[in-house]
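Ops channel
N.P.: pipeline sanity check, posting one input/output pair.
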């Protein structure tokens, strides 16, 4: 049996499509564990009651406190009874044969993990940016030794294998053996789970089939992510650096340091584009993030191959104002078409918020 875990929080406008896609699966041996993460919107709760009453395959877990998608998924894991586990986000949906494709391949090649392709959904229209050539890791069985030697880098700033939990089928034993606990992260939680599971995976397979429809949000559309971005980025960085120390995976340290710099740059760029009227607050948040402990870990980049020495100099010395000011100056020199696109995205954000 496959246990499908769906965390739900105030997605009433699109939840019905998600649950229909589960109910219509060609593979019938499944249970769907719906974790209501303390939803407050009336439509969401009405839809949950409707679907719980529709089939005994739907199991309802009702949380008393909103704790976020990561902890909601672990609440679902505690209730899961299946040999296989997969995750679906409540604003996404499965292709009708998704489970059949994943389970058939897992049993055919005896894989602990089978991952499928995603189709991105933009504002009601479908888009799939599929590359002309198939990646060398797709449609072949990857055994444990190769997985760790060649592909474990995917979790430390070098994206090779997919790191998403959705569109992926896992054998339940992996979660039992890894003894995972929630990270509490606002982003990067999928990556952390996979990072902890991979040492226990004996074999991995990626199918060249679209089995999952992923709804893509507007760029910069959520202030709540910017509010928690820096704290989350630092927590993720520290967690991953600890893992690198534990497993002696020194080759990935450089990539992880660069990733943290990129997180800082992403925050500042988003603030410049979408929060320029809150400049003082933005700089204070950045200053709090650039404490001595964090900056010291980035010093090796100054003598390495990292190219943007001017920006790095400001980060390493905890100069939040200098970093912010430099990136503002760089943004002003960008081509007009790029800044026009950013303004268009901001306008769309405001329109969507009204609808």
């Amino acid at each position: 049996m496959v246990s499908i875990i769906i965390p739900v929080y105030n997605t009433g406008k699109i939840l019905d499509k998600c649950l229909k896609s589960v109910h219509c699966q060609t593979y019938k041996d499944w249970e769907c564990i719906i974790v209501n993460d303390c939803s407050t919107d009336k439509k969401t709760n009405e839809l949950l009651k409707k679907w719980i009453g529709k089939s005994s395959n739907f199991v309802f877990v009702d949380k008393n406190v909103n704790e976020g998608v990561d902890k909601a998924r672990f609440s679902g894991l505690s209730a899961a009874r299946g040999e296989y586990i997969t995750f679906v986000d409540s604003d996404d949906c499965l292709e009708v044969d998704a489970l059949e494709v994943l389970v058939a391949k897992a049993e055919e090649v005896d894989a602990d993990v089978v991952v499928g392709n995603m189709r991105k959904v933009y504002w009601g229209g479908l888009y799939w940016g599929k590359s002309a050539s198939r990646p060398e890791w797709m449609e072949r069985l990857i055994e444990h030794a190769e997985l760790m030697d060649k592909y474990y880098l995917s979790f430390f700033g070098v994206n090779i294998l997919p790191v998403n939990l959705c569109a992926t089928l896992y054998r339940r034993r992996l979660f039992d053996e890894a003894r995972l606990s929630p990270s509490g992260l606002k982003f990067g939680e999928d990556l952390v789970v996979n990072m902890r599971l991979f040492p226990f995976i004996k074999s991995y397979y990626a199918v060249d089939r679209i089995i999952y429809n992923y709804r893509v949000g507007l760029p910069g559309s959520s202030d709540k992510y910017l509010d928690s971005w820096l704290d989350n980025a630092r927590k993720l960085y520290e967690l991953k650096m600890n893992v690198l120390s534990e497993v002696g995976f020194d080759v990935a340290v450089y990539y992880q340091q660069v990733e943290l710099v990129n997180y800082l740059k992403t925050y500042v760029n988003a603030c410049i584009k979408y929060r320029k009227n809150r400049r003082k607050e933005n700089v204070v948040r950045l200053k709090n993030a650039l404490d001595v402990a964090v900056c010291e870990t980035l010093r090796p980049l100054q003598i390495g191959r990292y190219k943007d020495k001017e920006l790095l100099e400001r980060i390493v010395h905890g100069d939040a104002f200098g970093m912010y000011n430099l990136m503002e100056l760089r943004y002003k020199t960008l081509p007009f078409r790029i800044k026009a696109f950013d303004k268009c995205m901001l306008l769309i954000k405001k329109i969507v918020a009204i609808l």
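N.P.: looks fine end to end. The beta strands are 2-8, 30-36, 58-62, 84-87, 93-94, 113-122, 125-127, 142-143, 168-171, 203-216.
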